Amino acid sequence: MNHATTPPGGSSPGSGTSPQGPDGPDLPGRPAAGVAAHRQWAGRQAPAHSDLSPTDPGAGHLPGQETPVAPPDDQQPRKPRAGRNLPAAIGVGVGLGAVIVASLLFVKVLFLVVVMAAVGMGVWELTSRLAERKDIRVPQIPLVAGSAAMLAAGYAFGPEGSAAALALTALVVLVWRMREAPEGYLRDVTAGIFTAFYVPFLATFVALMLHADDGPRRVLLFLLITVCSDTGAYAVGFKFGRHKLAPRISPGKTREGLAGGVALSMVAGALGMQLMIEGGAWWQGLVLGGCAAVVATLGDLAESMIKRDLGIKDMGTLLPGHGGIMDRLDSLLPTAPVSWLLFAAFVGA
């Protein structure tokens, strides 16, 4: 006895017969009644695809249908290449520039107070990120106080004063950390001394430039060439950048951008040295601008390494469109000693 299941309509799927349906003989272009009944029967026998989620590629598509594919890349919405909020960045930059220029033009000591505030906040940002991401407990209070002391000593007593203040700050960090358990002592004090050198000590060279008779103009030119380096690199890199400068450290930087930053900084240096600095020459400004642009880029890359090690994008959020204070000081800090040295070599300290 044959127990095979027979589909409705009286014929097996492979019999090749197509009996007439109740409506009469089969017509061309219309499936036979037996074939239609077999399709309905086969549909009832097929397993349900209930295990497909709406996100599966085959969900919502019958067998034999093509699965839709994503549109090509050139039809996908593109993200803006610029990584900044430009209106906010420009507004904050103009505001900071106004504060700096106003303090430089009226009272030199007022500008020194502005630098102390910026450096103190930068130290606080860096040490806070070290604690959050690496559990490195750097003594913040002696570092912030030592930052102000280094800047004041550098302005009043020159390089000897800033060096002495750095040494005293390091000693206070060593003693301050003794109040806690010895576990991690070497790690914490090492990070503290690094912070004291990296942020406030490098900033003391701004105070040394400010101490000269034409100090405000020197500081203004130092800021101008550093900003031109960053602006030229950003503009040229955004428009023409094709070859990565250091993809493992800062994927957004390009060689074309570096060339643009060096060129604009050299032009600004030549004009500024000739017009702003007594006894300065245009060729000295070319040297000053070129060196400043290269060192500013290296400083930016150095902080990018620190941020990558910490697993963060910005040091803070205090400045909209820029990040934190340290995200603006990263290129200024290493450029300060180079600018001070070249000013001293060209026109005297």
UniProtKB/TrEMBL annotation:
Q: In which pathway does it act?
A: Phospholipid metabolism; CDP-diacylglycerol biosynthesis; CDP-diacylglycerol from sn-glycerol 3-phosphate: step 3/3; Lipid metabolism
Q: Name one GO molecular function term.
A: phosphatidate cytidylyltransferase activity
Region annotation Disordered: where it falls in the sequence: 1-84
**Bias category Low complexity: which stretches?**
1-24
A Gene Ontology BP annotation from the UniProt entry = CDP-diacylglycerol biosynthetic process
- Give the UniProt entry's GO cellular component terms: plasma membrane
Transmembrane regions listed in the UniProt entry = 86-103, 163-179, 191-212, 218-237, 258-277, 283-302
Which Pfam families did the record assign? CTP_transf_1
Xref: PANTHER family: PHOSPHATIDATE CYTIDYLYLTRANSFERASE
The protein here is known as Phosphatidate cytidylyltransferase
